[in-house]
Design a protein that fits this description.
Glycosyltransferase, 475 residues, alpha+beta, 14 helices, three-stranded antiparallel sheet, four-stranded antiparallel sheet, 2 domains, single chain, globular
Length: 475
């Protein structure tokens, strides 16, 4: 069986599409043939999604950009979903793409851009409800796992030194893994008014989420979770005998791994704690409004308040040159890590997740830092400049950083530059990738990475809704 790390480090080569000039000619003359599966081979078809593709693509003057949107936006539905009815309820298993497992984070993010269309398409609504139902089942199996199999099939990682179960693909504890299902549940509830997913399975899962967050504040010891892996890849195993480097309990929640699935250096991962604050407030609203459980709602709000207060006190740190910034990781003792990683939640993504206003002065100063030489994972090469992370290695830029920069920007010039970079670095494939070399986009990792594809589509729709004039330009 090929490991996830092998997938991540394998570079794929693709021939470039034909050049696009400023004069528009029919797309087929420039080689922009659809890269979508044939209709009969698609995993799921949504009439609302197909209508949105046609609507938005019709407004895009740049044929190559329109072709990329048409390929990318439906990629999750086309290639990664397995929808069925189990015991009378929708159940949807969502793989990441080239890895046949369901990450709580990725599955939520992959489905998220379709949520606004759920009210227009009953089939799509049921599919999304099925993802929420499946995620609740997964959390109840093990709230510390990040990725799951479609049943008790076992895993290539079953030798990891942790409490593996046959339903688990991988057991890396990441705070964001429990935040994303809340975000999806809340967004679906707000978009459709449908609370039927809030059954006993879901309620039990959400109570387990809050309990896990509280345990991982580590006020009463290290808790039950530890993880080690026999590996030569440092970020795939955990320091401190599997519990991570020491922390001082200050109210923040430990995340032993980052959303990249890389081990943290200091276990209080700041972007994930900001995300947890947002998620706990959303959870409180759902329990109070729909489930009439004021007691649990108050518990959620109290925890959110505690984490938020600790972030204000411990996550804002004086940089030796740039002044006060938000650190990426801290430990409560005063140690901190200045960096960012393209995976979401990131410091860059805080406004996207609803954790901080884009005009917040502290965020704006931190954002400047993220795209400067002071961020060790900001890379500038011949082809592009952007943010990467340890997961793919040095000099590897993630297209997700361009997408997130644009999604959190109100500056049309900045958004335009991001669109240009996305168009210039897909290596002629018509799809997004996990990462590419800063000097050569043809050297990329993961040719089938559905999260990156779908969030690119989300960006194009946001530009269509808010900056439509940009789509009339040729990039």
């Amino acid at each position: 069986m090929i490991s996830r790390r092998d997938f991540l480090k394998t570079a794929a080569l693709a021939s470039a599409g034909l050049a696009v000039g400023t004069k528009q000619v029919p797309a087929y003359l420039k080689g922009f043939e659809s890269k979508r599966p044939k209709l009969a081979d698609r995993k799921f078809v949504s009439e609302a999604v197909e209508a949105k593709i046609k609507e938005v693509k019709g407004a895009i003057a740049d044929d190559e950009l329109g072709w990329m949107f048409e390929n990318c936006f439906p990629n999750t539905l086309d290639t990664t979903v397995n929808y069925r009815i189990i015991e009378g309820r929708p159940d949807t298993f969502v793989i990441t793409g080239d890895i046949n497992a369901m990450w709580l984070r990725d599955s939520s993010a992959q489905i998220w851009p379709y949520v606004p269309l759920a009210g227009e398409d009953k089939k799509l609504k049921n599919l999304i409800a099925g993802v929420i139902n499946k995620q609740a089942k997964c959390i109840n199996i093990d709230p510390y796992a990040n990725a799951f199999n479609d049943g008790p099939t076992g895993s290539e990682w079953d030798k990891d030194i942790t409490e593996m179960k046959p339903e688990l693909h991988e057991r890396k504890w990441e705070v964001d893994s429990l935040c994303y299902p809340i975000r999806l549940s809340y967004g679906f509830w707000k978009a459709t008014g449908d609370a039927s997913f809030m059954d006993e399975t879901w309620k039990n899962a959400m109570r387990l989420v809050v309990n896990t967050f509280e345990v991982q504040q580590r006020k009463n010891g290290r808790g039950p979770y530890s993880f080690e892996r026999v590996t030569g890849w440092q970020t795939d195993t955990v320091a401190g005998g599997g519990w991570g480097n020491p922390i001082k309990p200050v109210g923040l929640i430990c995340s032993i791994f980052r959303p990249s699935d890389d081990a943290t250096i200091f276990p209080f991962l700041v972007p994930s704690n900001y995300f947890a604050v947002v998620s706990l407030k959303q959870l409180a609203e759902m329990f109070k409004t729909e489930l009439n459980d004021a007691s649990f709602a108050e518990r959620c709000l109290n925890l959110a308040s505690e984490v938020e207060e600790a972030l204000n006190k411990y996550a804002v740190v004086e940089h030796f040159t740039l002044g006060k910034l938000i650190a990426y990781e801290v430990d409560g003792f005063g140690n901190h890590q200045f960096m960012d990683d393209a995976n979401v939640p990131s410091l860059l993504s805080l406004p996207y997740l609803g954790a901080m206003d884009a005009e917040n002065p502290l965020y704006k100063e931190t954002r400047k830092y993220l795209f400067s030489v002071y961020n060790p994972y900001f890379f500038k090469g011949k082809a592009a400049e952007g943010i990467g992370g340890p997961h793919s290695g040095l000099e590897m830029i993630w297209p997700l950083s361009f997408v997130m920069k644009a999604l959190t920007s109100r500056d049309e010039n900045e958004i335009r530059e991001c669109l240009k970079l996305l168009k210039a670095t897909h290596a002629g494939t018509g799809f997004m990738h996990e990462s590419f070399h800063m000097d050569d986009p043809k050297k990329f990792t993961r040719k089938w990475f559905a999260w990156a594809n779908t969030i690119f589509g989300e960006l194009i729709i946001k530009v269509y809704n808010e900056h439509r004039g940009l789509l009339r330009e040729i990039f």
